[in-house]
Design a protein that fits this description.
The protein has helices spanning about 10-15, 15-30, 35-45, 50-65, 75-90, 130-150, 155-175, 180-200, 205-215, 225-240; strands spanning about 115-120, 125. By secondary structure, the chain is mainly α. The chain has one domain (about 10-235).
């Protein structure tokens, strides 16, 4: 029986590497701005000052030339590929009865342990590819959250969800799905992890901060978005002044 290695994700990750690098640099910029963002948070600790806080943070981003959404682009571009693979692997005739490593049939789940009972929402077997996928996702998310933890301290619930709950949920969800699909997502996370480690060795936080400080010295013009935020803040403060 011919062995098929479903490694198409590698080519997708290689093509998207420039965007992945840009995303990491964007996260690094947010990280080195943490001390200045802390000052803003201390200046506006009250909930009613949330608009002023947001306005000040956005003004800081614009002043130093940082886009807060710069790290999201690679994920958005990869999303259609991940959805396509979710549909492809279970329905692929080419993968049926094709083995890979311990998986006897890539079109269905792999089982390294058959349980004498069924676990609700999990099944009566243990899929090793699914476990590897969940572990790889955990380490990828941990590295990503480590890069952005300082700038997202106000969202501890979201961090817990992405770091712990998501791998566990996918462990249960993918246990009954195609082994090829779990392997694909596992490989995707491993490649992302490797790329991040490689990029981390080439990105200098001190050089980034120096560049941002240079940008801050340049003359700035207000964007439409920043102007809109300022208008919203003024409108929100107007009724209070009348009182």
């Amino acid at each position: 029986m011919r062995v098929i290695v479903p490694a198409g994700q590698g080519s997708v990750q290689v093509v998207l590497f420039p965007l992945t690098y840009k995303s990491y640099v964007s996260q690094a910029k947010m990280r080195v701005l943490k001390p200045q963002i802390d000052v803003i948070n201390e200046k506006y600790p009250k909930k009613e000052d949330a608009m002023k806080k947001q306005q000040s943070v956005m003004a800081l981003y614009k002043k130093v030339g940082v886009s807060p959404l710069g790290g999201c682009l690679p994920m958005l571009i990869q999303f259609p590929f991940l959805i396509a693979m979710f549909r492809f692997f279970p329905a692929s005739f080419e993968l049926r009865q094709k083995s890979f490593l311990w998986a006897e049939d890539l079109s269905t789940y792999d089982s390294i342990i058959d349980l004498p009972f069924e676990i609700p929402f999990y099944g009566d077997h243990v899929s090793l590819f699914t476990i590897l996928m969940a572990v790889a996702l955990f380490f990828t998310s941990k590295m990503s959250s480590g890069q952005m933890a300082d700038t997202n301290a106000q969202l501890p619930g979201m961090k817990f969800m992405m770091l712990y709950m998501m791998p566990v949920m996918l462990l249960f969800f993918f246990n009954k799905y195609s082994a090829g699909l779990s392997y694909y997502y596992f490989l995707s996370n491993v490649i992302t992890l490797g790329q991040t480690l490689l990029i981390r060795r080439t990105v200098d936080d001190e050089a980034i901060l120096k560049k941002l400080n240079e940008n801050a010295k340049k003359p700035q013009t207000k964007s439409k978005f920043q102007t809109k935020l300022e208008e919203m803040a003024k409108q929100k403060q107007a009724p209070r002044r009348k009182k």
